[in-house]
Design a protein that fits this description.
Belongs to the Gfa family. Keywords: Lyase, Metal-binding, Zinc. This is Mss4-like protein. By secondary structure, this protein is mainly beta. It has one domain: Metal Binding Protein, Guanine Nucleotide Exchange Factor, Chain A, CATH 2.170.150. 4% of the residues lie in helices and 34% in strands. The chain has one helix and 13 strands. The protein has an eight-stranded mixed β-sheet. Strands 2-1-3-4-7 form a five-stranded mixed β-sheet, with no helix packed on it. It starts with 8 loop residues before the first strand and ends in a 9-residue tail after the last strand.
Length: 175
C-alpha cells in the first residue's frame, strides 16, 4: 500500500484508543504478529502470526461470560496456545469450578489484576488453545457463531445467521 508504513507488529492500546493496522502480510508473505493490552496497559499480549486471514470471533451468552464481562456477552477468538504470548506483566488467573461453568468443563480465566480487564480463557473443551478477548485487539473480527444463545435476552438480535446459533454441546438451534 502506497504511503503506509509496514510494521511487523500490530499494536492496539485500548487505554489510549490507538492502533496500527493488523494482519498485514509481511515481506515474506506470512501474517504479522499482533499485540493488544488491557485497559491500564499493565498486561500486553502477542498473537504470533496474528489471527489469520479468515479468522472469526465467537460470541458467548453464558451467564459466567455475561457476569465476568460486565455485558450481554463475551466476544472471543480461538488462538493456538503456542501462538499466545504474554509480552508484559503478569495476568491473574481465576479457576472457575465445573459447577459454576455453563459447559460443566473446567475453565481458567486470566485477567489484569490492576484494572480487571478480561484477557483470555482456557477450557477443557479446547485444550490446545485459548479464547482471547477480541477487544484487546480492536474487535476487528466478525462473529462466526453465537453460543449459549438460549441464555441471551429475548430482546437481543443475533449477529449471525440462524444456522450459527448454538446451545453448548448441541448442534445449531432451529428456528
Amino acid at each position: 500500500m502506497k504511503g503506509r508504513q509496514h510494521t511487523d507488529i500490530c499494536r492496539v492500546d485500548v487505554s489510549t484508543a490507538t492502533s496500527k493496522p493488523c494482519n498485514i502480510p509481511s515481506s515474506n508473505g506470512t501474517m504479522s504478529d499482533i499485540e493488544g493490552s488491557c485497559h491500564c496497559g499493565a498486561i500486553t499480549l502477542r498473537i504470533v502470526g496474528g489471527f489469520g486471514d479468515d479468522a472469526k470471533s465467537f460470541i458467548c451468552h453464558c451467564e459466567p461470560c455475561q457476569v465476568l464481562s460486565g455485558s450481554l456477552f463475551a466476544c472471543t477468538a480461538f488462538v493456538a496456545s503456542k501462538n499466545l504470548q504474554v509480552v508484559r506483566g503478569t495476568p491473574k488467573p481465576y479457576k472457575q469450578s465445573r459447577e459454576t461453568n455453563s459447559s460443566g468443563m473446567q475453565v481458567t480465566r486470566h485477567f489484569c489484576g490492576d484494572c480487571g480487564t478480561p484477557l483470555w480463557g482456557e477450557s477443557e473443551v479446547a485444550p490446545s488453545g485459548s479464547f482471547v478477548r477480541t477487544a484487546l485487539f480492536g474487535n476487528t473480527l466478525p462473529p462466526k457463531a453465537e453460543v449459549f444463545w438460549k441464555r441471551a435476552h429475548e430482546w437481543e438480535k443475533p449477529m449471525v445467521p440462524p444456522g450459527a446459533l448454538f446451545e453448548a454441546g448441541h448442534g445449531p438451534l432451529t428456528a
